[in-house]
């Protein structure tokens, strides 16, 4: 194992020198930056357009058979009152006024009709906005401020929930442990293919024979796996730093939903459980993808199994509501403890708080044993498949080699 450091440094350095690694690493923050930019400039353009429309004045004719619109408001905007709808429509059609509003006798059952001169797809919305504003302001003047707030849904609410006699905010509680679920999803999605092909490059380049003359297969494969873990951590940093910087710089200008993220609870038990599950899950699927790559003669054949692995990992997301509403159901129990489907259910249930400590410990033991077994199989597959260029290996053939040698 004295060559382990050499293998580790070589794999990390070689990957960091690849343009594809940085393209994949930077793609996510660049995409987020692009979305932020689109939202920012869209909001800015919309605001500017709204200001321009607000500055524009247009002539209005009104027929109010509902008697709800206040005459004082009509006078304030110099609106022309016409006796009937036919006259009002004719006024617009002949260009005498820009817009005509017809308020029926019962606006709760009949439609308010707007006739206006076309000023473009988006600018035409201003006519209905003015007709609505006239009605809202007229009615608002007849009721109290309190009644107005209730009718306009401007009443503020605060909700305080309790769990085990203590104040409990479920949304804030899931943020810290939920980070591990997000990271696992991002890393497997963006880094999985590199895990799959990490053991096939040397085979395709026909340099594996020379490597194995000086380095044991076990040392080589462990070095590759450790380098993948470190590269994944680098990728996490590369992804998070630009996003945090962008949010701090222009986050307040994006009109994002306003969530109070101050005083986020940090439950050390749930955070520790999430971290351990994240590490073991990542190790398990790294070993699985490395094992598949080691058994395949080429990266092209190995990539055919990538979709199957993705289904195992992310298939449980289709039952996401069950993990929250029915955590004790047999399906949830199976998906939680079956190692190849457990990462998402475990991380999600730990985030929402319905994964008990005994369940978490049992799942961690299962994941640890499974990861160890998969790693051992990956090393053995690589040992016997490193020089196999023409066909894929099977577990039977690999373990059969051992039996034949013993005999």
Strand order of the largest sheet: 2-1-3-4
Q: Helical stretch count?
A: 18
User: How confident is the prediction overall: mean pLDDT?
Assistant: 78
Percentage beta strand: under 5%
Number of domain modules: 2
The dominant shape is: elongated
Number of strands: 6
Order of helices and strands: HHEHEHEEHHEEHHHHHHHHHHHH
What summary fits the major beta sheet?
4 strands, mixed
Uncertain stretches: 402-407
What is the radius of gyration computed over CA atoms, rounded to a whole number of angstroms?
32 Å
Helix content: 55-70%
Report how far apart the termini are: 29 Å
Based on secondary structure, the structural category is mainly alpha
Kindly list the characteristics that best describe this protein.
407 residues, four-stranded mixed β-sheet, disordered C terminus, mainly alpha, two-stranded antiparallel sheet, D-Maltodextrin-Binding Protein, domain 2
């Amino acid at each position: 194992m004295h060559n382990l450091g050499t293998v580790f440094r070589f794999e990390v350095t070689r990957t960091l020198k690849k343009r594809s690694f940085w393209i994949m690493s930077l793609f996510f923050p660049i995409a987020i930056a692009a979305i932020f930019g689109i939202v920012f400039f869209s909001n800015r353009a919309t605001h500017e357009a709204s200001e321009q429309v607000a500055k524009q004045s247009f002539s209005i004719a009104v027929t109010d058979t509902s008697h709800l619109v206040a005459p004082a408001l009509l006078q304030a905007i110099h609106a022309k009152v016409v006796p009937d709808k036919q006259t009002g429509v004719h006024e617009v059609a002949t260009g005498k006024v820009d817009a005509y509003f017809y308020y029926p006798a019962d606006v709760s059952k009949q439609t308010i009709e707007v006739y206006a001169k076309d000023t473009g797809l988006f600018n035409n919305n201003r006519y209905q906005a003015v007709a609505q504003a006239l009605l809202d302001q007229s009615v608002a003047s007849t009721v109290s401020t309190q009644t107005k707030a209730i009718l306009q849904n401007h009443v503020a609410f605060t909700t305080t929930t309790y769990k085990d006699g203590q104040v409990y905010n479920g949304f804030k509680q899931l943020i810290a442990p939920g980070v591990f679920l997000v990271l696992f999803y991002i890393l497997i999605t963006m880094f999985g293919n590199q895990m799959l092909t990490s053991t096939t490059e040397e085979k395709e380049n026909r340099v594996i024979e020379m490597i194995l003359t000086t380095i044991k297969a076990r040392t080589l494969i462990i070095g590759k796996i450790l380098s993948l873990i470190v590269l994944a951590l680098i990728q996490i940093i590369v992804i998070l730093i630009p996003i945090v910087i962008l949010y701090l710089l222009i986050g307040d200008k994006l009109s994002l939903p306003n969530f109070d993220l101050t005083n986020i609870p940090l439950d050390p038990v749930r955070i520790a459980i999430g971290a351990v599950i994240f590490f073991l899950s990542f190790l398990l699927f790294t070993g699985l993808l490395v094992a598949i790559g080691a058994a395949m003669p080429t990266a092209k054949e190995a990539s055919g199994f990538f979709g199957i692995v993705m289904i195992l990992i992310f298939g449980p997301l289709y039952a996401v509501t069950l993990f929250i509403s029915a955590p004790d159901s047999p399906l949830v129990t199976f998906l939680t403890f079956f190692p190849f489907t457990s990462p998402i259910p475990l991380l999600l249930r730990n985030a929402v708080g319905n994964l008990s400590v005994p369940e978490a410990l049992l799942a961690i033991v299962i994941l640890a044993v499974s990861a160890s077994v998969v790693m051992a199989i990956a090393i053995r597959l690589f040992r016997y498949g490193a020089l196999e260029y023409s066909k894929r290996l099977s577990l039977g053939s690999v373990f059969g080699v051992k039996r034949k040698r013993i005999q």
